[in-house]
Design goal:
This protein has helices at about 5-10, 15-20, 35-40, 55-60, 85-105, 115-125, 130-145, 175, 210-220, 230-235, 245-265; strands spanning about 45-50, 65, 70-75, 75, 110, 155, 180-185. The chain is mostly helical.
């Protein structure tokens, strides 16, 4: 239950066993992986981000570096993820997200808030600090939902949970299983949380479904090493005429992954592509 492996899995649709990113180390230096942001850039889709520096590093080559009128930077935190002033950094990033939405210039935006994990790891989930952080983040999400157009889908999730007593967990279910909220003002989704499994299992409700779901919404191919399928709730929002294109993209990628594996182990009998 560490951040960077799960960020990579969200962006690329592959488990840590496949990406090789098993901890918060060697970020961006050893592993060059395909992501939904790279695919979006190839399709001419404008993307933006307001995140901590670690996550921004993974996206930096595929972003429009300024948002809104160009005066607000997409990355405000140049230090490690757990800044001593996480609440203040969140305010800056939140204003950047609102500016990006209001500009109507972006098709894909990722935003990140860190005060919740900061207070949870420092004080535990039963603390007043954690409660106040949850309240603040909920207000931020409400504000975002109040200004997004009806055809925009908002996804809210976390890389992992924290323990009751503070700090990171390990393999405990409460550290690995967190909700994924899907919300769209112009649809019926958002009535309840979708609960993905933040482990290594390739299940229909796994973290690796996020990349495929975003790809489906944008009408772009899945990332090159994608293992997941889009969530059913997302497919409800995609034109049925696009479903065959999406599943062809997923099928071709699964075929490519299988062939790479077979060649790696020295098997010459690969699947015909």
């Amino acid at each position: 239950s560490t951040g960077i492996p799960n960020w990579v899995s969200m962006l690329g649709g592959a488990t840590p066993q496949l990406t090789g990113q098993r901890g918060n180390h060697a970020i961006g230096t050893k592993y060059q992986l395909d992501t939904i942001f790279k695919r979006a850039k190839e399709a001419g889709i404008v993307t933006g981000a307001a995140t901590v520096s670690w996550l921004h590093f993974l996206l930096r080559n595929d972003l429009d570096n300024n948002i809104g009128d160009g005066s607000i930077r997409t990355n405000f935190l140049e230090d490690e993820t757990l800044s001593a002033n996480a609440a203040g950094d969140d305010i800056k990033r939140h204003q950047a997200i609102l500016s990006a939405i209001s500009s109507d210039s972006y098709d894909l935006i990722v935003g990140q808030y860190t005060q919740l994990i900061r207070s949870g790891q420092t004080n535990g989930v039963n603390s007043l600090s954690y409660y106040n952080s949850v309240t603040t983040i909920a207000e931020y999400v409400y504000e975002i939902m109040s200004i997004v157009p009806e055809d925009v889908v908002v996804m809210v999730t976390s890389a992992h949970g924290v323990t009751d007593w503070g700090g990171f967990g390990g393999t405990e279910s409460f550290s690995r299983n967190v909700p994924l909220l899907l919300m769209s003002k112009g649809s019926s989704i958002g009535k309840k949380a979708v609960r993905p499994v933040f482990g290594t299992e390739s299940t229909s409700q796994s973290i690796i479904t996020i990349a495929a779901s975003v790809s489906a919404l944008l009408g772009i191919p899945v990332p090159n090493h994608n293992q997941g399928l889009p969530l059913d709730q997302v497919l409800m929002l995609v034109e049925k005429s696009q479903h065959s294109y999406l599943y062809e993209s997923v099928y071709l990628q699964q075929q490519t992954l299988t062939n790479r594996f077979l060649r790696t182990i020295g098997n010459e009998e690969v699947i015909e592509e």
